[in-house]
Every structure is written in C-alpha cells, then in structure tokens.
Amino acid sequence: MAAGYGELLRARHAARLLCGTLVGRLPSATGHIAIVLFVRSEGGGYALAGALAAVYGLATAVGQPLLGRAVDLYGQPRVMLPAAVLSGIGMTALAVVGTDPLLPAYAAVVVAGMCTPPLEGGLRALWPGVLGREDRVHAAYALDAVAQEVMFTAGPLLVTVFVAWWSPGAALLVINVLGVLGALSVVVSEPSRRWRSAPREAHWLGALRSPGLLALLGSFLFVGVALGSITVAAVAYADDHGRESVYGWLMAALGLGALIGGAVYGARRWAGEPERRLRVLVGLLALGYLPLSLTPGVAAMTGLAVVSGVFLAPALACAFVVVDRHAPPGTVTEAFSWLVTVFGVGAALGTGVAGPAVEWGGTAPGFRVAGAGGAAALLVLLATARVLNGRGRRGVPVVSSENDRNGAVEPGFSAGHQA
C-alpha cells in the first residue's frame, strides 16, 4: 500500500502539486479559527467572531465555483495567483485594521473569502495529465481525500502554535503568506502552466447544467450536514464528560478513520461503474454515523468515531471520479469547486441544526442529525440512480463521450486536457 502511494508521489510533479495545493489551502482550512482567535484578542465577543467567520465561509462558498469557472476559461496561473494574493490582502487588512470600525472588517473577510483560489478543483483537474493511467488518477483522488483529513486536523493546530509563538494577528498574516506561496508553487509548475480546459459550450449554468452533477451535489450537501453536526455534538459530548480534550480525541479519531479508509481504498484498482460504488460507500458512511447517537463512554465513543470516519475518504475519492464523468466539457474545475461549495454549505447547515437539537434534547439528538444527514445523502443517490448511471429518460447516455472515453475498468477522465 505504502509502496503504491510512494510510486504515485515519485511521478514527475506529483509531490510538488499535492504539497503546494495543501499549503495553498491552509488559509481556507484555518481561516475561520484564525478569525475567531483574532477577534477575541481584539476584545470582540463570540457573536462578532462567529459572524465574521460565517461571512468568511459564505464568501468562500460563493467564490469557489465563480473562480473555478474563470480557471476553466482563462487557465490556472492567470486566475489562481492573483486570487491568492487578493485573499491574502483581505486577511492582512483585517489584521491591520482590526474590528473597529466593523464595516472594513466585514469587507476584508468578504474579499479574503471570495478570492480564495480553487486549488482543490485545480489539482483534481491536473491529475490526469500528470499521472496518465486512470488507476493512478483514481489512487491520487484517494490520496487527495486523505491529505484533506490531515490538513484539517493539523491546520488548526498550526494556527494555535503561531498564536502561542506570536499573536493572533501574526497568525493571520503567516497563514496567508504560506497560502500565497503554496499557490505560487502550483501555478508556476509546468502542468499548471500547460493545462487547458476542453472547449466548452457557452451556457450561463456552466457545470450545473449536468443532471448527474446536480444529483451528486445534492447528496454531498447532506454528507456535509452530517459532518457539521458531528462537530457540534462532539463539543456537547465533551462537556458532558467534563473534559475539553475529549473533543480533540473524537475529531482525531474521525480523521484517523478517514486516513485508514482512504489509504486502503486507494491501494487497489476498482472495477465497475463508480456511480454504483458510490451508493455503497455513502450507505456504509451513513451506517457508520448511526451508532454515535448511543454516546457510550469515552473509550468506546472514540472507537465509534474511528469507524464512522472510515468511509468518508473513500466516498470523497469516488465522488471525485463521478464529478469528472458528469462535468460538461470545459467545466471540470468549476464542477469540482461546486463540490467544495455544497460540502461547506452542508456543514454550516449541520452546525445550525445540531445546535438546537443539542439544546432541546441533549447530546444524542445532535449525533442523530449526523445519522439523518447520511441517510438523506444515500436517499438522494438512490432516487437519482438513473441520472447518475448515465441514462436519460429513454436510456440515452447523458455523460458525454469525452468524459467516458474508455469505460472499461475505470471510467475515462475529462480533466487532463493539455495545451
């Protein structure tokens, strides 16, 4: 397994692109935490801190597909590097101006969020051209999903280290400088400079004109709901047990489960249509969330958290393949960016629903929201099976031949068009 991933990373440009993308995404992974810590250090209350963090998250969700469409139209370097610089300037303005007056602070986080470069979608668009073979691209998607879990676990820890060493304002600056450097590392690489999207049909809906992509996005909105609700319910569980460290253990256990699942999933070659496999993976993911509502002791709960995370990275990796199959020609970066957006919106909805559930019924109902979110995600996939399987009303394929060129062991990829 390790040897397979080692071979993957030894491919020319692969390690650089993966590492550069992860570093470039540090601001988006840690921005909400850095904003909260900064606002609190400036004397602002939790309400203001939460509001600014929420505005940042909303602006990021809006900006990702718009910038993704721009990347498909104009290429990666011309969009991603200026966007990363503007995003960094927005966070720098917040660190310099502070929270008084409020209007510039809100404007700064809007700029920072809206201009967050779509590095996730950009990397997934580059993999086919860099790695060539479809089985290696499939493994790269799994490795990408695993790396996300590592980043979202290590990123907040990195912010707290910077705050301890310097200050919350300095943490904002350092994280965003690193983000710009990561984006720079990606866009000056040969694959990024040479990559061109396929010719696209002019359409105001862009990637969203694909019924299969809409079905997938609907499902992963609810996967995001499940994950967002778990973060709130885990805090309540830690409060019930009188130890804040319990929350960290549960989040680390979720990440460990995803790490294990993604590593195993990406180590083998999968036969059959990914749409059908995705239904199985999302079903197993939903099943893993259900026992969390039992809220047993800390040791058992930590074990359940590991199990509940096992199928997350495989489901994401499989979803990346499905996105590429169903994205209309010339919209692949935008399509991947939409997945990022709906996932984030779903997580925000999950936190919003789980909060009242915990207030009214205690910790267990908070975790039941996660189970309900997983079940809803599966139901969407089941209800849209004909669309996702590439069949229209009378059995006519709706996935373009460009997106499914080979259709053998693993579906063809549309993302790897070169200049």
From TrEMBL:
SUPFAM superfamilies: MFS general substrate transporter. The keyword Membrane applies. Residues 395-419 are annotated as: Disordered. The keyword Nucleotide-binding does not apply. Keywords: Membrane, Transmembrane, Transmembrane helix. The chain crosses the membrane at residues 17-39, 45-67, 79-99, 171-192, 213-234, 246-266, 278-294, 300-323, 335-355, 367-388. InterPro entries: MFS (IPR011701), MFS_dom (IPR020846), MFS_trans_sf (IPR036259). GO terms for cellular component: plasma membrane. Residues 212-419 form the Major facilitator superfamily (MFS) profile domain. This is MFS transporter.
